[in-house]
């Protein structure tokens, strides 16, 4: 019998293609399916050079891929979980989350080893309010300047000399073969990544429960638990990637999860922290979010919406 072919919808950026080929290889190794890719340009990609930080978290990297699944042109879509909004439309579900890679942010510079090495008033590139806020909370003297585009074009802008340093996700750099550009890692608990950073997810139609079941073998149990906790936190905070929320969950040896999260004002002057350990990822995320809300997170996140 010939094997059935699964069509994987993907964005057409270098990073998205790497991630989708990674998922395709796992599917071919662990299921009876063969695979083909359907690369697409999403609205998020078209706006990448302009206004993304305002639009992030609204699923602008997903819509075209989801439409391809509804139209029967694709069976699944592959995403950076970081780009998947916490509240998914009812028609879709995440059927697998692969083992998380390095979740840290990377400090990338051609002249300096770390944040502490930067001279007074140095220009650092990022368009993420979360990264901006953490930079300024640690180093209020720095000048944070916008930096947009895909990973390759952001590195090019650093090399052009517009910035003393830039901040990118370590996972994206490593996947594209740029690990040697990482001068140092900004790691938890001192520095928190975005919700779901470093994790790749597979989305399918909610009514395709057979496929969802078959693809669940791709999932990494501990990663999936951690991502569920972080996403539950985001949902309760009504966060998107355009607001300054940092979160990082870790699975412990007794199968519990530890979740640490923070909410920042865009200028980094206000920082709320919360952390908790628990077994149920959804209630853990909610409890940590409620702790942050009781400390005034709503008011601080409202500052992000205006920024
Ligand atoms: N915001 C875009 C985005 N979405 C996922 C990654 C990197 C890979 C990942 O975090 O899984 C990046 C690039 C970056 O933030 O530097």
Give the strand line-up of the largest sheet: 2-1-3-10-4
C-alpha end-to-end distance: 58 Å
SSE succession: EHEHHHEEEEHEHEHEEHHEEEHH
CATH superfamily of the largest domain: Periplasmic binding protein-like II
Would you tell me the structural class of the helices and strands? Answer: alpha/beta
Determine the mean pLDDT. 93
Per CATH, what is the topology of the largest domain? D-Maltodextrin-Binding Protein, domain 2
CATH class of the largest domain: Alpha Beta
Write out the distinct hetero groups bound to the structure: ligand PBG
Taking Cα atoms only, what radius of gyration do you get, to the nearest Å? 19 Å
Structure summarized in a few sentences:
The chain has 307 residues and is α/β, with parallel strands linked by helices.
Protein architecture, described:
With 307 residues, this protein is an alpha/beta fold. It has three domains: 1-99 and 198-219, D-Maltodextrin-Binding Protein, domain 2; 105-186, Periplasmic binding protein-like II (D-Maltodextrin-Binding Protein, domain 2, 3-Layer(aba) Sandwich); 221-307, Porphobilinogen deaminase, C-terminal domain (Double Stranded RNA Binding Domain), CATH 3.30.160. It is built from eleven helices and 13 strands. The strands form three sheets. Strands 2-1-3-10-4 form a five-stranded mixed beta sheet, with helices on both faces. Strands 7-6-8-5-9 form a five-stranded mixed beta sheet, with helices on both faces. Strands 11-12-13 form a three-stranded antiparallel beta sheet. Strand 11 and strand 12 form a beta hairpin. Helix 9 (221-237) runs parallel beside helix 10. It is globular and about 65 Å long. The mean pLDDT is 93. The ligand NCc1[nH]cc(CCC(=O)O)c1CC(=O)O binds next to strand 8 and helix 7.
